Amino acid sequence: MAWSNWAGNVADRATLRCPRTPQEVAEEVRSAADEGRRVRPVGSGHSFTPIAQADDLRLDLRHLSGIVSADRATGRVRVLAGTPLRVLNQALDLLGLAMPNLGDIDAQTIAGATSTGTHGTGATLPGLAGAIAGLRLVTPDGSARWVDASEPDLFAAARVGLGALGIITEIELACLPAYRLRAVERPDALDAVLPRIQEHFDAHRHFEMYWFPGTRRVQTKANDLVADDVQEPLAEWRRRLDDEFLSNTFFGAAQRVITRVPRTVLPFNEVAARALSARTYTAPSHEVFVTPRSVRFVESEYAVPREAVADVLTDLAAWVERRREPISFPVEVRVAAPDDMWLSTGYGRANAYVAVHQFTRGDHRAYFAAFEEIVAAHAGRPHWGKMHALGAAELSVLYPRHGDFVALRDRLDPDRVLTNAYLDRVLGA
Ligand SMILES: Cc1cc2nc3c(=O)[nH]c(=O)nc-3n(C[C@H](O)[C@H](O)[C@H](O)COP(=O)(O)OP(=O)(O)OC[C@H]3O[C@@H](n4cnc5c(N)ncnc54)[C@H](O)[C@@H]3O)c2cc1C
After folding, report:
1. Whose CA is nearest to atom 44 of ligand 1?
2. Alpha carbon distance 337, 349 (integer Å)
3. pLDDT tens digit string along 272-293?
4. Domain identity same for 170 and 296
5. For residue 165, which atom of ligand 1 is closest to its CA?
6. Does ligand 1 have an atom closer than 6 angstroms to the CB of 344?
7. What is the C-alpha to C-alpha distance for residues 93 and 280, in angstroms, rounded to an integer?
8. Å from CA of 342 to ligand 1 middle
9. CA 272 to ligand 1 centroid distance, Å
10. 105-150, pLDDT tens digit by residue?
């Protein structure tokens, strides 16, 4: 059965299995282990790395979707692992609850997103896996167990588990009462924002910046809590113009032109940086976080200690200026709080995230390689779902608990029922 990820840069022809219940998941894993086969769980295929690639059996948990139970008073919600974030967000909204933070799309499944350390932005907020209070894990021998803080090591490893320790069938989330955000988005100058970026990070619940390579222009987004009765909706025509036409339809057409005629990239970036004008609106949190993305790209993203972010951007800007590469996607800059999850980019460190993108038909190689060299000087930790060239030796230095994770994996999956080539590279065979 042919499969490829969202970006189209990873594909395989593994045998597809779609279990309908957690019990069927356990049976699939048990019989695969008995027969000496390999199993790979897959979510929505939104990782840019081959982390979800299967070379034997692919376990797709699309039927394990929806809320299992919810306690509005405590905010604890149990959800099936294959639930897409868009389904989760709507269901939480109906319950008067919301995720503490989200990334910028809602296509991923809850287990897929948390397993790679997916994050949003916010100096006081960890990645999505930080909201996990417990999870049900089918380990490679086919047995199921509930994992929570009462087993601190397994809990610290399994929340960002790369799909290497077992198949998650259910997750308990610690949600917040539903909240509204006021979004303030505006164009600015890189040279005005960058020297004060730490203040911006700390001044807002969520702050992010998009820098247009080859220009000194940025677009900033600051989202803060507002009272429930504040209503400043975004006009529908404005949403369509900014989020659908400028950010997708026009942007996609421009990418095709730039791929054919690379010298158009600089004028395009100057125009793009000015096309998105200032806007302020309020909406339920998940509507503010999530934006549509129809233009396909590839991406690399690294977490660096947040105080290093200005140096990273300065070096990247100098490289872009020197090389004049046709880079037509803005560079995204975010922030997150430290956490205690072993393979989380945020383990024990407050980070800024810098993400570089390139159109799928363009050539990303020189750009991403230069980016990786720049972040390497700041102990950059790669996002597990976004392109990077590192292997277990380098990662074991960057992630202080990498060795403990590998030891746990050796214990839980000695026969490597769950592995693939990517896991062999980043964890060791
Ligand atoms: C357009 C776009 C926007 C994005 N925006 C962001 C963003 O804002 N922030 C960010 O941090 N990342 C972002 N990402 C990256 C994305 O969130 C991650 O790669 C995420 O892991 C994808 O989730 P998925 O459901 O598609 O999982 P997949 O890519 O299918 O799988 C990811 C991993 O999860 C494992 N897995 C899946 N299901 C299970 C399970 N039930 N049990 C155990 N393991 C499982 C897989 O084996 C694999 O290792 C974005 C990606 C795209 C394409």
Report:
1. 163
2. 7
3. 777 777 899 999 999 999 988 8
4. no
5. 43
6. no
7. 22
8. 18
9. 28
10. 999 999 999 999 999 999 999 999 999 999 999 999 999 999 999 9
